[in-house]
Amino acid sequence: MRESYLDYAMSVIVARALPDVRDGLKPVHRRILYSMNEMGLAHNAKFRKSAAVVGDCLGKYHPHGDIAVYDALVRMAQDFSLRYPLVNGQGNFGSLDGDPAAAQRYTEVRLTRMAEELLKDTDKETVPFTSNYDATRKEPVVLPSALPNLLINGSFGIAVGMATSIPPHNLREVLDALFHLIARPQASAEELADVVKGPDFPTGGIIFNQADIRQAYSSGRGAIVMRGKAEIVERKGLSQIIIAQIPYQVNKSELITKMAELVHEKKIEGIRDIRDESDKDGLRIAIDLKTDAYPQKTLNSLYKFTDLEKNFNLNMLALVDGIQPQVLSLKGMLEEYLKHRKNVVTRRTQFDLTKAKERIHILEGLSKALDQIDAVIQTIKKSSDKETAHQNLKAKFKFSDLQAAAILEMRLATLAGLERQKIDDELKEKVALAKELEAILKDPKKVLAVMAKEFTRLKEAYGDERKTAIVPHAPREIAAEDIIPEEEIIIVLTRGGYIKRLRPGVWRVQKRGGKGVTGIETKEEDVVEHFLVANTHADLLFFTSSGKVFQTKAYEIPEGSRTAKGKSIFNFLSLKGDEHIRSLVAIPKTASPTSPKAGRYLVMVTERGIMKRVAAAAFENVRRSGIQAIGLKRDDALKSVAVTNGEDEVLLVSSGGQAIRFREGEIRAMGRGASGVKAIRLKKGDLVVGQAIIRRGLDDQKSGLLVVMAQGFGKRTPLKEYKRQRRGGSGLKTAKITAKNGAVVSTHIIREEAELIAISRKGQVIRTKLSDIPILGRATQGVRVMRLEEGDAIASITTL
What we know:
Helix content is 30%, strand content 26%. It is of the alpha+beta class. It folds into 4 domains: 2-169, Topoisomerase II, domain 5 (Alpha-Beta Complex); 229-307, Gyrase A, domain 2, CATH 3.30.1360.40; 336-462, Orthogonal Bundle (Topoisomerase, domain 3); 486-799, DNA gyrase/topoisomerase IV, subunit A, C-terminal (Neuraminidase, 6 Propeller), CATH 2.120.10. A hairpin with a 2-residue loop joins strand 10 (229-235) and strand 11.
C-alpha cells in the first residue's frame, strides 16, 4: 500500500497537477499545444473543431479522459482565466458567471501568437524529447518557451500533499525583471519587487499593500488582498454603486446572488435594486440605493460580507528540472527561467551552427565543381551509371559523399553566371553566420545578449498596460463602525431590563398636553426607567445597583418597533440576577475639538447626594464581566452619570424641587473604587433625580433649565436664575411641588435643542416642541406637557 500510494503521489505531482517552472505548463496543456502545432493550427490558419484537437491529443499523447483535455483547452482560451490566452477560441467558451463552455463538437480553436512563441524552435533540438505512452512517437519533455509563461499566466493545481497557486503578472514587468537580472545576477528580491510591482489579473480589480506583496515574493508564500473596482455615482438624484471589475476567480452571478441574500436577510441595508448590466463591452453591476442610504457604508458592507474583497493566497510551487517540486521566490522563478532559456538558446545556436556547416560543406563542393565544370561533366558522361559517377567524382576530385550527391543533383541552370554568383554569395553568408554562431557559443555574455534581444522583441510585440491597480498601503480593516451609519437614536430601558433602540422619527411631533402614543409595550408591573439620545457609534456605559459598570456599543442594541418591548439586557451584559441598571450614559466615539478625550471626566451622583468624579480614561476598556465604578453605601443608589470636560459646572435637582449649581472642580478626581463626597444637603425623604452639565462658556442669558414633574408638568427657567454656590449646600428652589404636578423626575439643560421627548412609566411617549413650553420662574408649578392615565407618571425625558 505504501509503495503503491507513493507511486500514485509522484505521478500526480510530476505528471499531472504541478507546472514546470521552465515553460509554466502542466503535461496536459503542453500536449494540447504541441498537438495543435503538429496539426498546423497556427494563429493565421483556419479554425478546427475542438473535438479534432482533443481526439488528436488523446490518441497520440494524453491517454486520459476527453473531458479533462477539453476543460484544459477551454481554460487556455478564456481571457478571464489567463492574462495572455494561448488558444484562440471561436464559439462559447464559458463566462464569468460560471457558465460552462459549449460541447467540443460546437467550438473551434487555433493557437494564438503567444502560444507559437512557446513552441518556437521545438524542431531545432532545443529541448529533450521522450517516447509517448505507446512508444510510437516522440513528445517534448518541456517547451522552449520564449515567454516566461509561468509568471505571466500563473498556475493553479492540487497535487498529493501539496498545492500551487501562482498569480498572473504583467508581461512588460516580468521582462523588465529579466533584463534587470541579466544585467545584475546578484540583484536582491527587493530590487526585483520594485520592477514586478504585483500580480496583474485578467479581470482587473485592485490589490493592496506592497509590503505584503514583497513578503510573498521573497518567501514564495503569502496572502494578497484583492478588491473589485467600485465607485459611488449620483444619477437623477439617487446614489448608485457601479462595480466595473471583480476580483480574480470570483463568479459574477454567485456574487450577485450573495448580495441579494444579504439584502433579504437585512445584513446589508440601503439597497433598493441590483442589476447585472454586463455586455460584450465589459462587466457592469449596478446597485441602486435607497434615498436614506449611506453609500459608503453600503459599499463597506459589500466588501466585508461578499467576495467583492477576498484574499489571493499565493504559493509559488513548481517543478524544478521537471522532477523536483519546490516553493520558489520571485527571483528563484526568474533564475530558473533564465537558466532554461540559456540552455535553449545554446542548443538552438549549436543546431544552427551544425546546419550552417553542412550547407557550407555542400556550397564549397558546388563552387569547386563549377570552377572545373568541364572536367566534372566529362567524368559524369564517361560513367556508366549514377553510382559509378558518384564514386568517380569522389575519387578524381576528392569530393565527400554529400558534395558528390549535391553535384549530381545540380541543374544545368546553375551554370549561368548569375546562378554561380548566388552560390558564392550564399557561401560567404553561411561562413559569416557560422563565425557568428561560434562566437556566441564561446562567450556566455553573448548568449545573454541574444536572450535580451529576444526579450526586447517580445516586449514590443506583446507588452501591454497593467489591468490591476495597486494601492501601496494595506486596506483599513472594515470594522462594525464602517458599515453602520452614524445617526441619532433613542435608547429605552425598563426597570425589568428590557432594552431597545429606535429612530426619533417613529414619533410625530404633537402639541403639548396631549396623551402621546404608545412607545413600548411593558410587562405588568414593569416600568420605563431610562430614556436617552445617543449616536449609533457611541459607547453605552451601564451603571448597576452594585456600583459596577458594563459597556457595549449603541449599535449593538437591537432596533425595535415603536411598540416592541425590546430584548432582555441579560443578552448583552453579564449581569447577576439581583443587579439592575441604575444609570445609563452615552460616551461619544470621538472627542470634539473643544472636548479632547484626555480631558474628559465622568461625574456620578447618588440618590443621597453623594458625588464623585473619575477620569473617563478609566472606563476605556471595560471588560465583559464589568468593572467597579463607585463604592455605594447600603442605603444609597447611583442615580445619574454625565460626561464633563474638567472645567464645566454641575447642576443637581432633587425630587423635592431643590437645585444646586457649583463648579465640577470642587470635587477632586478619584479612583474607581472611591465613594465620593457630599454634593447637596437633602431634607428627609428628598432624593436626587438628575444632574445637568453646564458647559464652559455657555451663555446663562440664552440657556435654560428644563424640569419635568411626575404628573406630566414641565417648565423652562433661565439659567441666570441659578447662582453659583459651593457644593454641599441645600441649594435653591427650582419648582413648586404640589399634589397636582408631582415630584420632579427629570431635568435637562436647553441650548439649541428644538424638541422634547417624554416617556411615561407605562410606555406612553410624547414628542413636542420646546417652544410650546413657557419660560417661568424657579418657584412655579409649570404647565401640562403630557396628559397621563391614572396611575401613570413621567419616567424620563430627552431632547433633540
